[in-house]
Amino acid sequence: MTRALFIIDVQNDFTEGGALAVAGGGAVASAVTELLAAHPNAYDVVFASRDWHDADSDNAGHFAAAGEPDFSTTWPVHCVAGTPGADYHAALLLPEETIHIRKGQGSPGYSIFDGVSEGGDKTGELLIANGVTDVDVVGLATDYCVRASVVDALEHGQHVRVLTDLVAGVTAETSEAALAEMAHLGAALATSDVVE
């Protein structure tokens, strides 16, 4: 068994004070750092994704171009490539060998599987190359990018655990629904105390 950790979108724009702040986002950043420090050998591979949207387009309708965003399929401008909002939260300390995935370049890009590494490799290809069979998922937001990443990981044949104390969502209702959907599709819901 080769286990990977997916750290989804723990970025300034998705944490307190950001353009699309998720309540508890900063706490998730700190808790993920604590997990990695307490269990440095728990994961064979660590992936960290970031929204990395183009500044000069609406990213295929992802940014509300006119009028108010609907906060479902259109959003305020956020996580523009190279801006402080797209940076990882300061409390998130990643291992040196982390594989960084950028997604949403000219597209919505909710799932980590929608992105590519700095070398241009797709997430699915990297899982195969590293022999990954099991994935733990943490990050932001439970009801959007975490959900999309979990669904895609399951479709790629991974055994998936969602560490429910290391995710935070936009609303309690939609987060609960997303967790129920992920469990129904085959993901295990657990807390970080299962990590060894």
From TrEMBL:
Q: Does the keyword DNA-binding apply?
A: no
Isochorismatase-like domain location:
4-193
What are the entry keywords?
A: Hydrolase, Metal-binding, Pyridine nucleotide biosynthesis
The pathway entry for this protein reads as: Cofactor biosynthesis; nicotinate biosynthesis; nicotinate from nicotinamide: step 1/1
Membrane spanning residue stretches: none
* Enzyme class, spelled out: hydrolase
InterPro entries from the UniProt entry: Isochorismatase-like_dom, Isochorismatase-like_sf, Isochorismatase_Nicotinamidase
Q: Which domain of life is it from?
A: Bacteria
Record-level GO BP terms: pyridine nucleotide biosynthetic process
Q: Does the keyword Metal-binding apply?
A: yes
- Per the UniProt record, which EC number(s) apply here? 3.5.1.19
Q: Name one GO molecular function term.
A: nicotinamidase activity
The similarity comment for this entry is: Belongs to the isochorismatase family.
This chain's protein is named nicotinamidase
